[in-house]
Amino acid sequence: MAKPDQNQVLRRLPIVAGTVAGVLLLTNRVLTPELSDSQARSDALGVILSALLILTGLLWQQIQPKLPDRVQLVGEEGFDLDKTLPEAVQAELAWVSRLLLTNTVTKTIVLYYQGKVLLRRGILPATAELTPGPIVQRVLDKQKPIYLVDVKAYPGRIEFDYLPENIQGIICQPIGADGVMILGANAPRSYTQQDETWIAGVAEKLSYTLSQSLPTDHATDR
Questions:
Q1: Nearest to 126 by CA among 75, 66, 193
Q2: DSSP bridge partners of 174
Q3: How far apart are CA 203 and CA 174, in angstroms?
Q4: What angle do CA 123, 72, 107 make, to 5 degrees?
Q5: Which of 23, 85, 137, 157 could bridge 89 with an S-S bond, Cβ 3.0-4.6 Å?
């Protein structure tokens, strides 16, 4: 279920106040049989102030845009790590995944490397198997990240059955030539450019660690 926008009332308050004031001024003008010069000037000033309130409200809609709707992801909190990895690699994967979950909007992480899933963490569905679909395969082939800003708009989202079914945003970040890190968020358009740059830096560090620690002959044909 989407969480309500906490600033919605504040953004609409000037528009509502300006509209109510304008209606009251118009009603008073209609019901007054004779207008004095001073009342006419007051009415004109009131109309201007009402218009300014409405304009302020409209500007607030632009300056303070509505936050993306966040959802409660379907799944259970989990942490699955390949225990066959060297202890130093396990420690680094655990540390990196925790940083991503606590310092970005990421709610679920899957790390696929050399044909196998090395890590799953965050909100996870029952499905653990990962078979690279067209989007992930493109990331592996082109060595360029893909950011699905609003998963609902992409027909190819069905390949991500190893993420929560109501995932809202996905980043597929290559890890060298042999892997990809898949991050999911619970709101569309929630990753910033700074997040993307930081995630790319993390992936480069993981690529170096994994390439130095894992034999390349364990890689499977994709």
A1: 75
A2: 180
A3: 7
A4: 35
A5: 85
